[in-house]
Amino acid sequence: MTAPGVLEVDDVTFTYGKKTVLSHVCLDLAVGVTVLLGRNGAGKTTLIRTLAGAARPTAGQVRLAGSVVDGRVRRGRSALRDIGWLPQAFGYPPHMTTREFVTYAAWLKEVPADRIGPRTADALDLVGLTEKAEQHLRALSGGQLRRAGLAAAIAADPAVLILDEPTAGLDPEQRDGFHDLIRRLRAEKTVVVATHLLEDVEALAGRIVVLDAGAVLWTGTAEELAGTAAAPPGLHGLRQGFQTVLGQDR
Ligand SMILES: Nc1ncnc2c1ncn2[C@@H]1O[C@H](COP(=O)(O)OP(=O)(O)OP(=O)(O)O)[C@@H](O)[C@H]1O
After folding, report:
1. d(CA 25, ligand 1 centre) in Å
2. Distance of CA 180 to CAs 90, 94, 128, 163, 164, Å?
3. In the chain, where are the structural domains located?
4. Residues in domain ABC transporter (predicted)?
């Protein structure tokens, strides 16, 4: 039996027609933060969608606590209920209030009726949107909207939280706020963050998985990444390390 919260990626391959976008990806994602780092087009979003059960692998499986994550209900309880997902861009009903949006997300994830109110309140509190709870989503700023999306993703208190480029397009202050939030969640959840920003890697630490051309090229810590370029940790060292790791592919 796998440890609770471990998302197993077992030899996952994904193709669009003849184009292979993920190739034999194997990962065990455990409690804490794992950063999926890769250049544009490396396959991060495709892997994220596969982890979230939004895309079914062409071959291989994703499993959570032994249940296959593919959108189908197995043994009466879908693994998807335990997975929260914040896509890069998400559609939202502009006339819904923030509270209605998060409440709806909790309902979709089948949170028991008497728990929906408290869970929604907790999620809004965690992302700092309690004061905006009765505002329409269309009135929120980009950063607030992203936080509303995060509140929706955590509304059912999932064991796994999957975030696709959560800090893209945010200003430095909003980005710091998001990093703080993720650091708070990582103690008890399996958090997977796809990014191409080394600032995210530096702020979130955790485990790094470098994805390139659809394959896992390297895994390790931030210190180890900088170490591949014999550089000290820090943004500059991470950049040098990332380039060194990518260069090893050629
Ligand atoms: N619907 C699709 N049909 C065909 N090819 C696709 C489709 N979606 C993505 N791809 C291709 O799959 C590859 C991986 O894309 P993906 O979006 O997963 O990468 P990414 O690492 O998330 O990139 P980015 O950082 O730019 O978001 C790219 O070459 C992309 O062009």
Report:
1. 16
2. 22, 27, 11, 14, 16
3. 7-94+159-247, 96-158
4. 7-238
